[in-house]
C-alpha cells in the first residue's frame, strides 16, 4: 500500500513522503475530529497535532495492528476526545461558558472538495456495515464512548462489543481501500 510506504519513508525522515501522506489522509482525519469536536478551529488544531505525533512516531507504526488510516484515525480520535474532555473540564472550572474565537480563514475550495470526498467515502463505507457494527463504531468514534461504556449502554458482553468494533473497522478499511483503488 502506498500509504504504508510513505509512512515508512517518513520514519526515515523523508519530509516529502510525509507531505504526500498528509495530503492523502488529512481530510479523513479532519472529518473524524470535526465530528467529535463540532468546532472547525479546534478540529484543525487537533488534526495538526495528530500529524505532529505521526511524524514523531512514524517508526512505531505496526501494520499487524491495522492500516495507516486506522492508526491515524485512532490518534485523531484520542486527541479529539482529550480536547473535548479538557474543554469540558475548563468550562466547569470557569464561571461562564467558554467563548470561542471566530474563524477568520475559511478552507480553500480545493480543501473543501477533498474533505467532502473523504466524508462521502467514509459515509458510504459506514452504510455497508451491519447495523450492530455501525452502532458500536458510531458510539466509539462519534460519541467518544469506551468499549466498557458501550457494553454497559447496549447491555452486551464486553467481548461482543470488542468483536463488533474490530470487525466493523476491518470492513470499513476494506471498503475505503476499494473506493480509493
Automatic annotation (TrEMBL):
<dbReference type="InterPro" id="IPR036388">
    <property type="entry name" value="WH-like_DNA-bd_sf"/>
</dbReference>
<feature type="region of interest" description="Disordered">
    <location>
        <begin position="86"/>
        <end position="113"/>
    </location>
</feature>
<dbReference type="InterPro" id="IPR014284">
    <property type="entry name" value="RNA_pol_sigma-70_dom"/>
</dbReference>
<dbReference type="InterPro" id="IPR039425">
    <property type="entry name" value="RNA_pol_sigma-70-like"/>
</dbReference>
<feature type="domain" description="RNA polymerase sigma-70 region 2">
    <location>
        <begin position="21"/>
        <end position="88"/>
    </location>
</feature>
<dbReference type="InterPro" id="IPR013249">
    <property type="entry name" value="RNA_pol_sigma70_r4_t2"/>
</dbReference>
<dbReference type="InterPro" id="IPR007627">
    <property type="entry name" value="RNA_pol_sigma70_r2"/>
</dbReference>
<feature type="domain" description="RNA polymerase sigma factor 70 region 4 type 2">
    <location>
        <begin position="120"/>
        <end position="172"/>
    </location>
</feature>
<keyword id="KW-0804">Transcription</keyword>
<dbReference type="InterPro" id="IPR013325">
    <property type="entry name" value="RNA_pol_sigma_r2"/>
</dbReference>
<protein>
    <submittedName>
        <fullName>Sigma-70 family RNA polymerase sigma factor</fullName>
    </submittedName>
</protein>
<dbReference type="GO" id="GO:0006352">
    <property type="term" value="P:DNA-templated transcription initiation"/>
</dbReference>
<comment type="similarity">
    <text>Belongs to the sigma-70 factor family. ECF subfamily.</text>
</comment>
<feature type="compositionally biased region" description="Basic and acidic residues">
    <location>
        <begin position="86"/>
        <end position="95"/>
    </location>
</feature>
<keyword id="KW-0805">Transcription regulation</keyword>
<dbReference type="Pfam" id="PF04542">
    <property type="entry name" value="Sigma70_r2"/>
</dbReference>
<dbReference type="Pfam" id="PF08281">
    <property type="entry name" value="Sigma70_r4_2"/>
</dbReference>
<dbReference type="GO" id="GO:0003677">
    <property type="term" value="F:DNA binding"/>
</dbReference>
<keyword id="KW-0731">Sigma factor</keyword>
<dbReference type="GO" id="GO:0016987">
    <property type="term" value="F:sigma factor activity"/>
</dbReference>
<dbReference type="InterPro" id="IPR013324">
    <property type="entry name" value="RNA_pol_sigma_r3/r4-like"/>
</dbReference>
